[in-house]
Automatic annotation (TrEMBL), chain A:
Record note on quaternary structure: Interacts with MinC and FtsZ.
Sample GO molecular function, one term: ATP hydrolysis activity
InterPro entries, sorted: CobQ/CobB/MinD/ParA_Nub-bd_dom, MinD, MinD_FleN, P-loop_NTPase, ParA/MinD_ATPase
Function according to Swiss-Prot or TrEMBL: ATPase required for the correct placement of the division site. Cell division inhibitors MinC and MinD act in concert to form an inhibitor capable of blocking formation of the polar Z ring septums. Rapidly oscillates between the poles of the cell to destabilize FtsZ filaments that have formed before they mature into polar Z rings.
Family: Belongs to the ParA family. MinD subfamily.
Protein name: Septum site-determining protein MinD
TrEMBL record, chain B:
GO biological process, one term: regulation of cell septum assembly
InterPro entries, per the entry: CAP/MinC_C, MinC, MinC_C_sf, MinC_N, Septum_form_inhib_MinC_C
Matching Gene3D superfamilies: 2.160.20.70, 3.30.70.260
Boundaries of every Septum formation inhibitor MinC C-terminal domain copy: 154-254
Pro residues biased stretches: 126-147
SUPFAM superfamilies: Cell-division inhibitor MinC, C-terminal domain (SSF63848)
Family recorded in the similarity comment: Belongs to the MinC family.
Record protein name field: Probable septum site-determining protein MinC
Stated role: Cell division inhibitor that blocks the formation of polar Z ring septums. Rapidly oscillates between the poles of the cell to destabilize FtsZ filaments that have formed before they mature into polar Z rings. Prevents FtsZ polymerization.
Heme as UniProt keyword: no
Keywords assigned by UniProt, alphabetized: Cell cycle, Cell division, Septation
Septum formation inhibitor MinC N-terminal domain span: 16-88
Keyword Cell cycle: yes
Length: 269, 257
């Protein structure tokens, strides 16, 4: 049975698109047929991060409106046989995504894929609601700061009350993904710790992704950071995908690096 | 992002949210027109439960009234209400009251349906004489007066920011954390077997015997029968401790559990 996973947060700029690209790619690299669906109408970041922006012809709204069919609209990833992208529309009209249309497209995708990863827009309004409504599981992306945690808390409230599963008396499986984690700043008391965030949100921790230069580098190159298996963020995302698949993997990158004398002198990272 | 899209985004940024809210509102349902008796009976109620009548918004329901009501009588009744600490905010009744409402600067709400139940304004315990010498090992609080029938509501999932839960006619029991930005309301007691980080309002229809129990007091606001304390005051004592909160006189009393 295909699984629909929504990557959501409430707050913008916390790493949802980065995470959707990484998790989608990670699942595909492990042999699962995966499609990443960009729900962020009007912004369209996912195809940039996936490096397929020059191959976009049709989009989600075209597909809903019947201007194109599934084959014409899905973009096949260059790196993995198993990975496809459904790009968002550039249209300004946020109402272009209708609940019936989204449901129809997701049902069709379910017949052909193992995983459907939905990259949610920010906010708690219609777009974010549509992205989560049909989900089986949710990856709630949170940064270690109070406003982000609050927004995630609200999103968790919507997941447990305003989703199709909730309406049917079922539960969406919830995962906490703490991103842009900076252990030094946590030690200095400038950011919330993993324990603080877990205490407030009280849902299982899927992973902690460190704040990392590798993320910006990867997105500039149009390569999902999970492909950079030398980088801390890439490894942390791989661990998270393993956990999503049910493996028990120890958490890493939670402690500040002890800086050596040379590093301290030259301020290296 | 171009300047154009930035503008566009700001343009669409919501300035307000329309929300379906639920307010508990006291109705003053007029059965017959007798301003003198009205004033006297209202005064008696106020004496029983002064706190219930501090700036309490009320709706004056006229549905049951069969006698004709004049502008002048209405104005008289409204001023009696205000004299006793009630704040009439609207009239309720059929279309024939529209002109009357307009003249009195009141909103007219459509006639009510069933499901309203009389409020027993709980009599305040007469100032207790002797046994108040706070024994150190505080015994378990004497079983509080049972909440009105209808028992209560049990919630097993976390209550998140933006969510509101109301236990009408009984207790509210939450077996999970209550987040900042969440709101719990109950006519009876509120129990939270987890941290209470949001707002908890017990005895919202005036039950002064209602209490709030929680495993960790981190609330934004707690209130019993309209008496409240905000986080700023709560932080001064028993913060993050397991406590019970009760109403003593017109002050909230916080005791460790
Ligand atoms: N772990 C990380 N370390 C450093 N920068 C990050 C990390 N995750 C995301 N970012 C950066 O944060 C910004 C927002 O990320 P994005 O995935 O687009 O967020 P969202 O989709 O939630 O708006 C991007 O510039 C991205 O490169
Ligand atoms: Mg995004």
């Amino acid at each position: 049975m295909a699984k629909i996973i929504v990557v959501t947060s409430g707050k913008g700029g916390v790493g949802k698109t980065t995470t959707s690209a990484a998790i989608g790619t990670g699942l595909a690299l492990r042999g699962f047929k995966t499609v990443i669906v960009d729900f962020d109408v009007g912004l369209r970041n996912l195809d940039l991060i996936m490096g397929c922006e020059r191959r976009v012809v049709y989009d989600f709204v075209n597909l809903i409106n019947g201007d194109s069919n599934m084959n014409q609209t899905l973009i096949k990833d260059k790196r993995s046989e198993n990975l496809f992208i459904l790009p968002a529309s550039q249209t300004r009209d946020k109402d272009a995504l209708t609940p019936e249309g989204v449901e129809r497209v997701l049902e069709e995708l379910k017949e052909n894929f193992d995983y459907i990863v939905c990259d949610s827009p920010a906010g708690i309004e219609k777009g974010a609601h549509l992205a989560m409504y049909f989900a089986d599981e949710a990856v709630v992306v949170t940064n270690p700061e109070v406003s982000s945690v609050r927004d995630s808390d609200r999103i968790l409230g919507l997941l447990s009350s305003k989703s199709r599963r909730a309406e049917n008396g079922e539960k969406i499986k919830e995962h906490l993904l703490l991103t842009r984690y900076n252990p030094e700043r946590v030690e200095n008391g400038e950011m919330l710790s993993v324990a603080d965030v877990e205490d407030i949100l009280s849902i299982p921790l899927l992973g902690v992704i460190p704040e990392s230069q590798a993320v910006l580098k990867a997105s500039n190159q149009g390569v999902p950071v999970i492909m950079d298996d030398k980088s801390d963020a890439g490894q942390a995302y791989s661990d998270a995908v393993e956990r999503l698949l049910g493996k028990d993997v120890a958490h890493r990158f939670l402690e500040a690096q002890k800086k050596g004398l040379l590093q301290r002198l030259f301020g290296g990272r | 992002m171009t300047a154009d899209t930035t503008l566009d985004l700001l343009d669409n940024d919501p300035v307000f949210h329309l929300k379906g809210g639920m307010l508990t509102m006291t109705l003053v349902e007029l059965i017959r027109l007798a301003p003198e008796q009205f004033a006297r009976q209202l005064a008696e109620k106020v004496e029983q439960a002064p706190n219930f009548f501090v700036d309490t918004p009320v709706v004056i329901a006229l549905d049951k009234l069969s006698e004709p009501l004049s502008d002048m009588t209405l104005r008289h009744l409204l001023s009696i209400c205000r004299d006793h600490g009630l704040q009439p905010v609207a009239l309720r009744g059929g279309e024939d009251f529209r002109a009357l409402a307009g003249n009195a600067d009141m909103v007219l709400l459509p006639p009510g349906r069933q499901r309203e139940k009389p409020i027993e304004v709980a009599a305040e315990p007469a100032p207790k004489p002797a046994p108040k010498a706070e024994p150190a090992p505080a015994p378990a609080p004497a079983a509080p007066a049972p909440a009105p029938a209808g028992s209560g509501k049990i919630i097993t999932e976390p209550v998140r920011g933006g969510q509101q839960i109301y236990a009408r006619g009984g207790d509210l029991i939450v077996l999970a954390p209550v987040s900042a930005g969440a709101e719990l309301l109950a006519d009876g007691h509120i129990h939270v077997y987890g941290p209470l980080r949001g707002r908890a309002l017990a005895g919202v229809t005036g039950d002064r015997q209602a209490r709030i129990f929680c495993q960790s007091l981190e609330a934004e606001l707690v209130s019993i029968a309209g008496q409240y304390k905000v986080a700023e005051d709560l932080r001064k004592q028993q913060w993050k401790a397991p406590v019970q909160i009760s109403l003593e006189g017109d002050r909230l009393k916080i005791t460790g559990l």
